[in-house]
Each structure stands twice: as structure tokens, then as C-alpha cells.
Amino acid sequence: MEAPQTPQDALHLGALASQNAAATRHLYSRLELANGKRQKLEGVFEDPVMKRRFEAEYAAVQTLPEALAAKQPSKQPLRKTAKTAAGAPARKAPKLLEAGPGGTASPSTASTANGGESTTTKATATAPQSMSLTVRGSPALQQVKPEWHPPWKLMRVISGHLGWVRSLAVEPGNKWFASGAGDRTIKIWDLATGSLRLTLTGHISTVRGLAVSPRHPYLFSCGEDKMVKCWDLETNKVIRHYHGHLSGVYTLSLHPTLDVLVTGGRDGVARVWDMRTRSNIHVLSGHTGTVSDVKCQEADPQVITGSLDSTVRLWDLAAGKAMGVLTHHKKGVRALAVHPTEFTFASGSTGGIKQWKCPEGAFMQNFEGHNAIINTMSVNSNNVFFSGGDNGSMSFWDWKSGYRFQSMDTTAQPGSLDAESGIMSSTFDRSGLRLITGEADKTIKIWKQDEKASEETHPIQWTPSLAHRKF
Length: 471
Hints:
Blueprint: H1 8-28, H2 48-58, H3 66-71, E1 152-159, E2 165-170, E3 176-181, E4 185-190, E5 196-201, E6 207-212, E7 218-223, E8 228-232, E9 237-241, E10 249-254, E11 260-265, E12 270-274, E13 280-284, E14 291-296, E15 303-307, E16 312-316, E17 321-326, E18 333-338, E19 344-349, E20 352-357, E21 362-367, E22 374-379, E23 384-389, E24 393-398, E25 404-409, E26 423-428, E27 434-439, E28 443-449
Antiparallel strand pairs: 1-28, 2-3, 3-4, 4-5, 6-7, 7-8, 8-9, 10-11, 11-12, 12-13, 14-15, 15-16, 16-17, 18-19, 19-20, 20-21, 22-23, 23-24, 24-25, 26-27, 27-28
């Protein structure tokens, strides 16, 4: 059988390929070493043939386009490295991570063994090309430096209730405040003097929630007797009842602009009531545990609820449906606090307080350090944030940075048990300069800022930490 003949085209192509290979060997023969590796290109461009060859090959990529050149970090001269005792420069350590775009390289150390001595060199030059593991273009994480706040001290102790003080509310004129307790009574106190003005009776169980209307002469109360009452403060009598809860009502909040009342309780729902007609507008269902706290605000989410099922729900008031569910907490959420001027709020559960941004409910930061069952939280317009624990522990925080500038234990009423040192409720007055706490030792305590304190006597002891991040 005859062997197949090679086509004429293939022979012609083979000749061209071998000619090209010969020319390549002639050009690059000086770059090949005996071990097959290529040597460095230093001094190669002295040969005119090689120079012309490289210019022809790489002329189009000699300079970067303007768009890419603008994004490159500026070149800075390297700082001279330290000399060893022998006079030789220390070997530069390889950088594991270069800085991101526009940033500086992280300090690296290099050790040179010379008579048992080691020298440390720091490279502070900007990296020509980034090998950063962070997302390109993302801003550097900067921690907020806390604002200085004076420490708080006890100003007055008010006795009069015969049970745990479970609820507090300050009237819009800042002249008096109301307290509700386990003795089934609501007491009205003068804020300036602490004297008792009035006692309202009508509930047949613990009074758990109070709110004073800013537009009407009304006081609203709710209790473990399933009752929600509207008191007329001109006659000091109940003028409306809101019926519908199937179990104890634990929390109550008034809408700041609408004539709407929102209550939550042990039946796991928040109910929205028309203040005037007493009709139940919405039943906000979705929680699987007791609704322990509810807050209202002007803009969506207009209703925020915290529950012992360890979730926080944001509600669309017009539709009567949940806008979002925050499931970050591990334990039941007992307290909420809405900032009076910022569009942010905080939620507190056992050992964990979290700050959120409205309207989407984005997580901002943790308030770390108050390891107790958080019963109550309050924040004023000066960015002082208070949290009270079931064991009597109190923490004062800077709202912006999450820095705890004061922590203390409440002073128990003489003669009361250690088990009765618990903070059950709290509120700032309208000025934000007085903090009122209702406690398990049946007293109401009023706290104020220390006027004699200054940044010199009580300096901020704060250091930035990667463990605490604000998003």
C-alpha cells in the first residue's frame, strides 16, 4: 500500500514555520541560559535589533489609558531601611497584604540574624498594584469617637406605691408625670418637687403601660386585667374602654400625629385602636410570643413591636401588615427605644442591645457590656442612652458610638430585699435632663447629670477596637 503524499500547501506552511523558528532562535538565543531558564532583560535594549523588536511588539501598551492611569495609586519613594551592625541593608520582608486603592501598605517587619540581634523595618510605601482582600472601592471602616457626657447621679427617691413600679409617662408640659404599679393604682407626681398630686384607681390588676396624649387632656393606661382605659384628666375619670385583648395588656403607645392608640400583650398581637370611636382598626398578628413593647413614630415603619419570641417587627400601619422582621436577637426582646430626633431605634434582650436604622431596619451596631435581662431602655435628644436591668444594673451609653460611659447598680430602698433591686421602667423627662426609673423596691428614683463633672475629672476611656463595628 502506497504512503499518502503530503499536500503542497502543508509543505509550504512547514517551510514558513521552520524559517520563523530559526529567526526566533537567532533573536532570543542570548536570553537562554544553559539550564533552559531565561535571563533578565537588563541591558538587552543596547542591541538595536532587540530594541526595534520590543518596540514593535509592545508599542501599543507602553502607556496606560487615561481612565486606568487616574485610578492608579501615586508613587512615593520608599523610606530607607535600617542598616544592620555590619553595614549591609536589612532584607525587605515580603508583604502579605498590600493596601487598597489610594491606601498605604501595612507595616511589615523583617529580621536579620547578626550576632543574635534583630532589626525591624517598616515599609510605608504605597503599593503599585493592590492585592487587598477587601472589596475595591469600599470606604475604610472608621470608628465613631464617643461624645463626652457627664455622669448621672441619684437626685431623689419617691415612695408611695405598694408594688413594683411597672410604667412611667411624662406629660408634654413637663410639669408632672404618672406612674403605674403592681398595687393597681396610677399616681400623678409633681416633677419639680416629687410630691403626690393624685391617685387614680380603676384597674383590678398591675398597671403595665401609660401614655399621656400631647393633643388631648387624656391619659391612657393598660394592665394585666386585659383592660385599656382612657382617663379624662379634667374630671379624673375613665371615659372610654377599649375591649379586645384576650389576655394581659403589657404595653401601650400613642401615635405622634394620628388619633391612634397601639397596644400589645400576652395574646401575641398588637392592636390598633381609633382613639375616639374605640374601634379596633387593625390586629397586627405575626408574633408567636408575648408582645412586650410597642413604639409609634410618624414615618414608616409607624409601629415597631418587640416580642418574647426574640423578634422585632416593623409594621405598615396603613396596610396592617409587617414590613420586616428582625431576627438577630437570641433571647426575648423586652424593651425598645426610639431616638427622638434620629430615624433610628434600639432593641434590648438578655445580654444584647442592638441599634437599627429606619425605614428598612438595617443593623447598625451592638451595645456590648450590659449582661443582664434588659427590662427597660430610654434615649434622649442629647444622645444619652439608658438601659436598666432586672438585677438593678444601670448602663449609660453614647448613642452614636455605642460607648458605655457609666455603669452602676441602683441603690435599693433600706429594708428591701436584694431580689427587689430591679429596674422595671424608665423614661427621660421632656428636657432630657432628668431620668425617672420605676423599680422593684416600690420606689421611683429621679436621676440627674453631675454639674461638677468635666472632661478633665471624668475623661473618656475609649480605645478603637476591631471587635466593635458600626455599620
